[in-house]
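Q: Here's a chain of 252 amino acids. Please give me its 3D structure as tokens.
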Amino acid sequence: MNAAELKTLLEAIQAGNISPEEGVERLRDLPFEDAGVALIDHHRALRQGVPETILGEGKTAAQVATIVGRMAARGGNVLVTRLSAEKAEALVQAHPGGIYDSLARTFALEQQPLEDLGRGTVAVVCAGTSDLPVAREAAVTAKMFQNRVVEISDVGVAGLHRLLAHSRQLREAAVIIVVAGMEGALPSVVGGLVDVPVIAVPTSVGYGAAFGGVAALLGMLNSCAGGVTVVNIDNGFGAAFAATRINRRRAS
């Protein structure tokens, strides 16, 4: 339940369209519901502006299915990240309206319209094709969190002219997420071209001395470009969450 839904419910009770007893019943599982395998935080959208996201990694297929089923029953949108194809199969059968993105490893069930709540566009810039899984996780998450998203792929520093061909899209974005592995140089380049926040995402892509993304992480943390913030290795979800908070319009 988000703030708008709660306001509608309270107004319906005030107008006499819903009895106080029915209102109490609808609010009974706030702030959380014990689903046996998890305590589902139905109050999160009220506190943080977006509903709880399910991390599929480390959970069994049955556990994920239970949590998704309980959340979907509330009529809201549901997002699962780090979900294998095997675990996703049961979800797609149970919720035909959901979409499994095998590249992003996300399952997105849209039950309510995704109204644009952002001040502008979130651009997701991906250095190389090998970085796409993390970039796609960021893009899917940002869209489910009600941002307008533009994706710019395969524009790493080995061919800088490819990035410069998207200069207009970069300048028009409100927030830019830059995903890169190897030496992690791309966020510094983007940060030197724009006047908006840049969120850098190091990936675990690279040869031995890349140390599973540590080299890219350290390179991004030591960026000489101002306004570059860094999230953890392969954390496309975290980058999209941060971008949402930066981009979100405040209620008047």
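Q: Can you summarize the key feature?
A: The mean pLDDT is 89.
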